[in-house]
Design a protein that fits this description.
heterodimer; A: alpha+beta; Ferritin; Nuclear Transport Factor 2, Chain: A; 2 domains; 9 helices; 4 strands; 14% strand; B: mainly alpha; 2 strands; 64% helix; 2% strand
Chain lengths: 319, 251
C-alpha cells in the first residue's frame, strides 16, 4: 500500500460495516450488563456493572451517530456473522446466582479486551487526515474500555478463591474458542486480538467501596448466646432444645420448617436486621447436600429471646 | 438471556434480610411504631436512609432490566434508561456513605422488594409511569423532606449529598413523563393502563396516611410540590395526588 498521507486502508463502506459491528458489540454488552445487575448478588460487581452500562450505551450511541456520516443509516447494529452473535449468546447466558465470576470474566477478560485490541488496531490503521471523526470515537472508547478492565480486575480479584479461579479459567478458554470461531467482532481476525493488560490505567473511580461483610458482633449480647446455642441445636437436630427456644404458640410451625432443612455440619450467622425490637436473623447451614439459608424472627418475651417465625429462604444443592 | 425475569430472581448478598413490606409495616405498628421510620431522631433517620439505600439498589436493578428487556424500544429511551442506571449506581454509593456516616451497617433493617416488583411490569410504558413517575416522584417527596430536616438539624453532609440525588430524581421523573407520552402515542388503551398502574403505586405509597400534604416536621412523608412541578407534574396531577392521600386506607 502507498505511504502517501492520503492513502487509506478502509473504504467508506468498510468503515460503516465495522462500525455497525462495533455498535452491535457495545449495544449487546450494555443490555447484558444491565440485565445482570439484578441477577448478581455481590454488591461490588453489581455496582461495577451499574457504572458501565451508561458508558457502553454512549459508545453504541457514538458509533450509531457516526454511521450517517458514512452514507449508512443511523443507529444500526450488525453482528459480523452468526458465529459472533452465537458468541454473545454464550457470554450472556451465565445468569445463575453463583455465576458472577463467569459474568465478569466474559465481559472484562474476553469481550472488552478483544474490543480494546480491535480498537487499537483500527486507530493505528485509520487515516489521520480523513478519518479523525472515527479516530476520536475510537480514542474515547479505548480510554473507557481500558478503565473498565482495570476496575474489573480489582473486583474480580476479591471473588477468586481456588474453585473460582478454575471456573474462570475454563470459562475464559471456552469463550475465547467461540470468539476465535467467529473471527472476532469484525469477523476478520481468525486469531482474535486480545488486550488484557491495562497496566498503569487507574480504574479505581469505577470501583465502589463496599463495606465489609456482616459482622456478627452487632448482635446484642443478650441474644448472641441463645442464638449460638440454637445453631448448635440445629446442627445436632436436637428438637427438644430447639423447641425450648421457640415461642409456645409458634412451636409447631417453626419446628415444621426445621424438619425440611437438610442435615448440616456448620452453621453461620449471616445477617441481622431490626424491625423495632424484633430481630430477623439469617442463618447459613452447610451440609453434604448443599447450603440452606434460614431466616428466623426473634422476639423478646419476659426478657428472654424466642423464635416466633422461621422461613427456609433458599436451598442450594452442593456443586 | 431470560426476558423479563421472575420477581424472585432478584439477587442479594446474604447480609440482606428480605421481608414483605406489609409484614414490616404490621410488625412495626404492632409495636406502636409508625408503618415506616420517621425522621425524628438520628436512629430513625438511619433507618430511613437504609430504606432509601435498598430503594436505590432496586431502582438501579430495575432500570438495568429495562435496558435489557426492551431491545425493540426507541434507542433514545434505552439511552435514558442506561443513564438512569448510572445515576442510581451513584445514589447507592451516596447512601452507602450516608449509612456509614450515621453509624449504620448494610442489612441493619429489613428490605422489602415492593419497588423491584413495580419495576418488573411487562410493558415499558407501565414501567416508566410506575417507576419514573410514581416511585421517583415518591423519591422527590422523601428526599426533599430529608434535605429540609438535615438543614434544620444542621447536617450539611446529608443536606448536600441528598440535594444532588434529588436533582437526579427530578430528571428521572421528566424522563418518565416524556416516555410515557412517546411510548403510548396513538395507543390510548396502553396509556390508560400505564397511568392506572402509576396510580396504584401512588396509592400504595401513600402508606395509609404516612404521605400527606403538610409541614416536613408534622407528616411522615411530605409531598414535595415544588420539586414535583420542576419534574414536570402538572398542578392537576399534584392536586390529584394530594386528594388520594386523603382517602388512602389504613395500611
Amino acid at each position: 500500500m502507498s505511504d502517501h498521507p492520503l492513502a487509506g486502508i478502509f473504504s467508506v463502506e468498510a468503515s460503516a460495516r465495522r462500525i455497525r459491528n462495533y455498535r452491535y458489540a457495545e449495544e449487546r454488552m450494555m443490555r447484558t450488563l444491565g440485565g445482570w445487575i439484578a441477577l448478581t448478588p455481590e454488591l461490588a460487581p453489581k455496582l461495577l456493572f451499574g457504572r458501565h452500562v451508561w458508558d457502553c450505551a454512549q459508545h453504541a450511541d457514538l458509533w450509531g451517530r457516526r454511521l450517517p456520516e458514512l452514507r449508512a443509516p443511523a443507529q444500526q447494529s450488525e453482528p459480523a456473522n452468526a458465529r459472533f452473535a452465537a458468541f454473545m449468546d454464550l457470554l450472556d447466558g451465565r445468569e445463575a446466582r453463583h455465576e458472577t465470576v463467569e459474568r465478569i470474566v466474559g465481559v472484562y477478560r474476553v469481550l472488552k479486551p478483544h474490543l480494546i485490541a480491535t480498537y487499537e488496531a483500527h486507530l493505528a490503521a485509520a487515516n489521520p487526515v480523513y478519518e479523525p471523526p472515527t479516530r476520536r470515537i475510537l480514542d474515547r472508547c479505548l480510554t473507557e474500555e481500558r478503565r473498565h478492565v482495570a476496575a474489573a480486575t480489582v473486583v474480580l480479584e476479591q471473588l477468586l478463591d481456588s474453585d473460582a479461579k478454575r471456573r474462570a479459567s475454563e470459562w475464559q478458554t471456552r469463550l475465547l474458542d467461540a470468539l476465535a470461531d467467529s473471527g472476532g467482532v469484525t469477523g476478520e481476525t481468525p486469531t482474535p486480538l486480545l488486550a488484557t493488560e491495562v497496566a498503569g490505567i487507574d480504574g479505581s473511580g469505577d470501583v465502589v467501596s463496599v463495606p465489609a461483610a456482616f459482622d456478627p458482633s452487632v448482635i446484642g449480647a443478650d441474644l448472641r448466646p441463645i442464638l449460638e446455642e440454637h445453631c448448635r441445636a440445629l446442627i445436632a437436630r436436637d428438637v427438644a432444645r430447639l423447641g425450648e427456644h421457640v415461642a409456645g404458640e409458634r412451636r409447631g410451625a417453626v419446628l415444621g420448617v426445621y424438619e425440611s432443612v437438610p442435615a448440616a455440619r456448620t452453621c453461620e450467622i449471616a445477617a441481622q436486621a431490626k424491625i423495632g425490637a424484633h430481630r430477623l436473623i439469617k442463618i447459613r447451614l452447610v451440609g453434604r447436600s448443599g447450603v440452606s439459608v434460614l431466616q428466623l424472627q426473634w422476639q423478646q418475651r419476659a426478657g428472654i429471646w424466642h423464635v416466633v417465625e422461621a422461613e427456609l429462604v433458599r436451598v442450594e444443592p452442593a456443586a | 438471556m431470560e426476558r423479563p425475569i421472575a420477581y424472585d430472581k432478584l439477587a442479594r448478598e446474604e447480609r440482606f434480610v428480605r421481608k414483605r413490606a406489609r409484614d414490616i409495616a404490621e410488625l412495626r405498628m404492632a409495636q406502636g411504631l409508625s408503618p415506616m421510620a420517621d425522621l425524628a431522631s438520628r436512629e430513625s433517620i438511619r433507618e430511613r436512609v437504609h430504606g432509601i439505600l435498598v430503594g436505590e439498589l432496586q431502582a438501579m436493578e430495575g432500570a438495568g432490566r429495562t435496558v435489557c428487556d426492551f431491545p425493540d424500544a426507541p434507542w433514545e429511551f434505552t439511552l435514558d434508561m442506561a443513564r438512569q442506571v448510572w445515576d442510581e449506581s451513584r445514589h447507592v454509593e451516596i447512601y452507602l456513605g450516608l449509612l456509614e456516616y450515621l453509624g449504620g451497617y448494610v442489612g441493619e433493617f429489613a428490605e422489602s422488594t415492593i419497588l423491584w416488583r413495580c419495576a418488573c411490569a411487562e410493558d415499558a410504558a407501565a414501567r416508566v409511569a410506575g417507576v419514573n413517575r410514581g416511585l421517583e416522584g415518591l423519591a422527590c417527596d422523601v428526599f426533599n423532606q430529608l434535605i429540609h430536616i438535615a438543614r434544620k438539624i444542621g447536617d450539611p453532609v446529608i443536606e448536600r449529598a441528598v440535594d444532588f440525588v434529588l436533582a437526579d430524581e427530578i430528571t428521572h421523573v421528566r424522563m418518565g413523563s416524556r416516555w410515557l407520552n412517546e411510548l403510548t402515542k396513538g395507543d390510548p388503551d396502553r396509556r390508560r393502563q400505564a397511568i392506572a398502574f402509576q396510580e396504584t403505586i401512588d396509592e400504595r405509597f401513600n402508606l395509609g396516611g404516612v404521605r400527606l400534604d403538610g409541614a416536613h416536621e408534622e407528616v411522615g412523608i411530605s409531598i414535595a410540590k415544588e420539586a414535583r412541578r420542576l419534574a414536570g407534574f402538572t398542578d392537576e396531577e399534584i392536586d390529584k395526588l394530594v386528594r388520594s392521600t386523603q382517602r388512602s386506607p389504613v395500611y
